[in-house]
Amino acid sequence: MLAGLLARVARGDREAFRRVCGELAGPVYGVIRQVLRDPAQSERVAQEALLEVWRTAPRFDPARGSAAAWVLALAHRRAVDRVRPRNPSSRRERRAAPHAGTGTGPQGAEVVEVTLDRVRVLRCLDALTEVQRESIKLAYYRGYSGPQVAALLGVTPGTVPTRIRDGLIRMRDSLEVTW
Amino acid sequence: MKLVRDEWHVLTGSYVVDALGSQEREGFERHLHHCVSCDAEVRGLRETAARLAMARSLRPPPGLQDRVLAATYRTRQLPPVVGDHPFPSRRLAARLAALLHRGPGLSWAA
After folding, report:
1. Of A30, A39, A72, A125, which one's alpha carbon is 20 to 30 angstroms from that of A46?
2. Beta partners for B58?
3. Quick check: pTM over 0.90?
4. B77: buried, middle or exposed (CB in 10 Å: 19+, 13-18, 0-12)?
5. The dihedral formed by the CA atoms of A174, A22, A42 and B19, expressed in degrees to the nearest 10
6. C-alpha angle A26/A27/A28, rounded to 5°?
7. Which residue does chain B place closest to A112, by CA atoms?
């Protein structure tokens, strides 16, 4: 359904785009806010990400994955690019590194109702080994690079990619994600 | 970056959670173009990462969607990708031109 809407968006259909935003603005804003924390900055980046969906919809290929995964990958990449500049000097990287989250989390009213799927996904995450779970959370929800994740967990940098991959594969299999 | 096949393969997860540095990311994307198994794995893991995003869905700030919709009126969309060779291709045009020149009775120069 979303893929069909995106095909219409590609042809400039604003009503279809309004419906895509209605479906995905919540997860787009949510995942960006996870990484950036700052509500005002998150709002700006979410707007940019959704506008990027409008701009690049003609390049969406439904044979290569779901529309939701395409949009959310784009949104996550944009958030991470904000905290991790390209080819940073080490000092710039330190300054721009995402903070580990002492700020207030999302307020209760912002949290969309607890769906069965949310519970299932978080339960799958909990079922992973500690290093797998923490690696995925630090990378995906905090926006840390592989070496940053390794430093925070006190493990060898070379082991982090394997942990992330093994953890995601286990989640994929237990959530029965197909593509 | 020069890595052997297995070294790239272990990066599928890091790629979908955006944990790679920019150089590694570019190298991995080049690898994806000609590695069917990495490409297939990336698709499945990208869908899985999307579930992690959906599990963190928040009510967007009021007005966000209206502002995005307003911005579409001043944002040009990319054209679709239609393959490497525009039609009629330059080579085809050149061949036709050569034929027209050589062919007896087809000369327009009379």
Report:
1. A125
2. A111
3. no
4. middle
5. 30
6. 90
7. B58
Question: Which value does ipTM take for this structure?
Answer: 0.88
B16 with A168: Cβ contact below 8 A:
yes
- Closest to A130 in 3D by CA, of A96, A166, A173: A166
Angle, vertex CA A136, rays to CA A166 and CA A134, nearest 5? 105
Is the Cβ pair B56, A12 closer than 8 Å? Answer: no
Tell me which of A165, A173, A176 to substitute to probe the interface with B (most B C-beta atoms closer than 10 Å).
Answer: A165
CB atoms within 10 A of CB B37: 10
For A46-64, the pLDDT digits (tens) are 999 999 999 999 999 999 9
Of residues A14, A54, A146, nearest to B19 (C-beta): A146
Closest CA to A58 of B49, B76, B26, B33: B76
Which residue type does A142 have? R
Touching check for A32 and chain B: CB below 8 Å?
no
